[in-house]
Amino acid sequence: MLTPRQKTPDLNLPLLGGGTFDLSSEEGSRGTVVCFYRGLHCPLCATYLKELEKRVADFAERGVNCVAISSDGEERTRAMADKIEASALRFAYDLSLEKAREWGLYISTSRGKTSIGIEEPALFSEPGLFMVTPEQTLYYGSTQTMPFVRPHFSELVGALDFAIANDYPARGEYTGAV
């Protein structure tokens, strides 16, 4: 389990269009939103990523970078980016399932073709949304066991405004005896 105010695992993955996403080298003055999605096979992910695409500029205005990541390879990742007509959102790919587990993501097994007729990978990670500070510590985290009921990006932008205005710290950091 990741702990707020503690360093997150490293992420170093290829990006669509070339280059590498390296979390430790991100330059957002307030951090990075890392959105882990299930893959091309998930119609709910496409809808969710389309919403994030619309909010990339809102996050950028607040000094926050955004990236979408899955264990899909380059071809399926490109198909997802094309599907949502991405122009601002960066896509990283080839997330290993071992790395997904380091981030606390749940792993699922294939159930064959989805409702949109795309084959699920044999194993893939379920969604997770994280905000990581420029120091690469966890500020916010949410993981799901299912593709349903994900955090809304508009609420995260609003919460970010509150956190900035009030110098609000990451919460959930206590790990001592209870």
Describe this structure in words.
It is a single chain. The protein has 178 residues and is an alpha/beta fold. It is built from four helices and nine strands. It has one domain: Glutaredoxin (3-Layer(aba) Sandwich). The chain is 28% helix and 21% strand. The longest helix is centred in the N-terminal third of the chain and has 19 residues.
The radius of gyration over CA amounts to 16 Å
End-to-end distance = 17 Å
Tally of strands: 9
Instruction: Count helical runs.
Output: 4
Q: Give me the secondary-structure category.
A: alpha/beta
Give the total of domains.
Answer: 1
Strand order of the largest sheet: 5-4-3-8-9
Give the name of the CATH superfamily: Glutaredoxin
The name of the CATH topology is: Glutaredoxin
Query: Could you say what the CATH architecture is?
Result: 3-Layer(aba) Sandwich
| Gross morphology | globular
List the helices and strands and how they pair.
Elements (H helix, E strand, L loop, with lengths): L11 E3 L5 E3 L8 E6 L6 H19 L2 E6 L4 H10 L6 E3 L4 H6 L4 E3 L13 E3 L2 E5 L5 E6 L9 H14 L12
Features:
178 residues, 4 helices, 21% strand, alpha/beta, two-stranded antiparallel ribbon, 28% helix, Glutaredoxin
Write a brief structural summary.
The protein has about 180 residues and is an alpha/beta fold. The chain has helices at about 45-60, 75-85, 95-100, 155-165, and strands at about 10-15, 20, 30-35, 65-70, 90, 105-110, 125, 130, 140-145.
